[in-house]
């Protein structure tokens, strides 16, 4: 079984497409921690037959931004399964994703003895000022967020597992131009071993073999509601 794991708060706008897209890829069940939502997220998720739902009103920040919650769930429930870890504003794609199911990819990875599969996280944004576009629940976000930085990425190969560390993109161009060491890493992982969740960080995956085939997480944080989200995030 292929699982999906996520932590989210007030994601009712994004949830319909997020779930539908990854169901079509082949995610069979979702492990989701809902963090004190008040926009209908909890109720919507509770009605989904393929979602196991946990709720917490505790601090997202003090849980290491949800890392502790997902780590526990993956150790308890994801051992022996491929598990895709995502945020609600992220969409996974891979070569031939529109014609080949995720199970074809994980089957190939199993045949190669690969236990973890990194994906570059690509920040998408709209044309023109943020906040001027209108997004409807269930809509493909790439219809609005159709732009991304194609250059200015720094790629390093880390030893001893030879996994890639990727930094850059619009974050570096707009916000961190003078502090290259602070550029946020742009990687996510698809895990096959529940014990890998104890790290949940690609730079510390010293106990599993990491794949190198191209995979992408399209990240759509710049939908019109992002400014409200950032304000609430900083408070939490």
Describe it.
This protein is α/β, with parallel strands linked by helices and 236 residues long. The protein has one domain: Spore Coat Polysaccharide Biosynthesis Protein SpsA, Chain A, CATH 3.90.550. It contains six helices and ten strands; from the N terminus they run E-H-E-H-E-H-E-E-H-E-E-E-H-E-E-H. The strands form two sheets. It has an eight-stranded mixed sheet with strand order 3-2-1-4-9-6-10-5, with helices on both faces. A two-stranded antiparallel sheet has the order 7-8. Strand 7 (154-158) and strand 8 form a beta hairpin. The longest helix has 11 residues, at 15-25. The radius of gyration is 17 Å and the shape is globular. The model is unreliable at 179-187, 194-208 and 226-236 (pLDDT under 50).
Furnish the topology, listing elements before pairings:
Elements: E1 2-8, H1 15-25, E2 29-34, H2 41-46, E3 51-55, H3 67-77, E4 82-85, E5 90-93, H4 102-112, E6 116-123, E7 154-158, E8 163-167, H5 170-174, E9 187-191, E10 216-219, H6 226-235
Parallel strand pairs: 1-2, 1-4, 2-3, 6-10
Antiparallel strand pairs: 4-9, 5-10, 6-9, 7-8
């Amino acid at each position: 079984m292929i699982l999906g794991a996520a932590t989210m708060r007030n994601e009712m706008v994004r949830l319909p497409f997020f779930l539908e897209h990854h169901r079509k890829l082949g995610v069979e069940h979702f492990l989701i921690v809902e963090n004190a939502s008040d926009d209908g997220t909890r109720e919507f998720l509770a009605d989904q037959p393929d979602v196991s739902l946990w709720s917490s009103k505790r601090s997202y920040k003090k849980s290491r931004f949800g890392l502790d919650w997902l780590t526990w769930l993956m150790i308890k429930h994801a051992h022996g399964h491929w598990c895709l870890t995502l945020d609600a504003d992220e969409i996974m794609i891979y070569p031939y994703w529109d014609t080949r199911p995720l199970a074809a990819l994980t089957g190939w990875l199993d045949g190669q003895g690969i236990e973890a599969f990194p994906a570059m996280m690509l920040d998408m944004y709209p044309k023109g000022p943020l906040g001027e576009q209108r997004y409807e629940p269930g809509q493909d976000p790439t219809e609005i967020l159709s732009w991304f930085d194609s250059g200015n990425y720094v790629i390093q190969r880390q030893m001893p597992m030879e996994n890639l560390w990727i930094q850059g993109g619009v974050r570096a161009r707009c916000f961190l131009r003078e502090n290259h060491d602070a550029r946020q890493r742009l990687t996510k992982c698809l895990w096959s071993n529940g014990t890998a969740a104890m790290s949940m960080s690609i730079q510390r995956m010293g106990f599993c073999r990491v794949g190198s085939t191209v995979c992408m997480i399209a990240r759509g944080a710049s939908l019109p509601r992002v400014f409200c989200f950032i304000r609430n995030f900083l408070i939490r």
